[in-house]
Recover the amino acids of this structure.
């Protein structure tokens, strides 16, 4: 089975870290949407936010997501933390399939990223408060987009990689043993 999946979750939830190891272990390309965007814009996301604003970044993010999800074959796609904010992106991801939400609480995330200065939305004032606000808005959107939720609080990164692989293998076996019905019958069809 060739892995083709996407990771969503809060900034600092582990999408890049888990995604890179998952791709390495399964031998498929790893695509980090944030890195791809930084190549496109020729600067860091943080500095782009400062000079061009978040709305412009979201336009480019939507464009990059639409393009990359058209690429055929195996891949592990790590999305940006805010990629689910736009309904069109959520739809693109659901269609792509195998979307995993790496869930972490604001408190866990804070412990992981408190010394990191690269995340534009977590700079300034009170990052813990900001994480709680982001989580309240986004947790329902990650759940709405994802096919699976992986709890990341306790396991190590390598255990999480194994958990994701197991989840995808189980889904694959279930799909192979019970393929969708090919019958022409539709529930609204009254001719039978
Ligand atoms: N399960 C985990 N347990 C402990 N630390 C973790 C775990 N997952 C990630 N980390 C650490 O948390 C930090 C943030 O992880 P990472 O950069 O992968 O998050 P991200 O989801 O890609 O964030 P962003 O959306 O901002 O790109 C890193 O220092 C990483 O090593
Ligand atoms: O949570 C967010 O809105 C963001 C997360 C990062 O992955 C980057 O995509 C960018 O910093 C915005
Ligand atoms: Mg990342």
């Amino acid at each position: 089975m060739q892995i083709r999946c996407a990771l969503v979750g809060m900034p600092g939830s582990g999408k890049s870290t888990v995604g890179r190891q998952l791709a390495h272990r399964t031998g498929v390309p790893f695509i980090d949407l944030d890195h791809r965007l930084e190549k496109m814009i020729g600067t860091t996301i943080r500095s782009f936010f400062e000079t061009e604003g978040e709305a412009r970044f979201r336009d480019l993010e939507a464009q990059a997501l639409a393009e990359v999800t058209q690429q055929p074959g195996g891949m592990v796609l790590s999305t940006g933390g805010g990629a689910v904010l736009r309904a069109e992106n959520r739809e693109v991801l659901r269609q792509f399939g195998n979307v995993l939400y790496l869930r972490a609480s604001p408190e866990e995330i804070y412990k992981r990223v408190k010394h990191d200065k690269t995340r534009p939305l977590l700079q300034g004032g009170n990052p813990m408060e900001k994480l709680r606000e982001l989580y309240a808005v986004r947790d329902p959107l990650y759940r709405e987009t994802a096919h699976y939720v992986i709890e990341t609080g306790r396991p190590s990164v390598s255990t999480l990689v194994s958990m994701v692989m197991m989840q995808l293998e189980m889904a694959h076996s279930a799909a192979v043993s019970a393929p969708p019905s090919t019958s022409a019958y539709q529930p609204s069809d009254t001719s039978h």
User: Anything to note?
Assistant: Residues 11, 34, 45, 80-82, 119-121 surround SKM (ligand 2) (CB under 6 Å). The radius of gyration is 18 Å.
